[in-house]
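thread: overnight batch results

M.L. [08:02]
morning all. the overnight job finished for the chain we discussed friday. pasting input first so we're all looking at the same thing
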Amino acid sequence: MSGKTVKLEITLYNREYTINCGPGEEERLEQVVDIVQKEMEAVAGRIGNATEPRHLMLTCLSLADKLLEARNKSSQELTKQEDLFVAAVDHLKQRVSELASQIGRA
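M.L. [08:03]
and the structure it wrote out:
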C-alpha cells in the first residue's frame, strides 16, 4: 500500500483529534484509543485535578508501567515454558535410554 492513509476522527478525554492510519487499521486504532481513554480516566481518578500536560505524562507513565509488567510476565512465562520443555526432553531422553537398554538385553 503505497503511502495511502485514512483520516480518523477520535476523541480523547473530551478533545477531538484527526489522525492518520493505514487502510484497514481503523478498528485497531479505535481499540488503542479506547485503552488510552480508559487509562486517562483511571489516572484522573487517582490524581484529581492536574494540568493537561501532567495528566498526559502520568497517563503515559502508567501505560508504560503496564507494558513493562506485561513484558516481564511474558518473559517469565516463556522461561517457565522453556524449563518445562527442557524437563520433558530430558525425561524422554532418559526413557528412550531405558527402553534401548531393555531392548539390548532382550
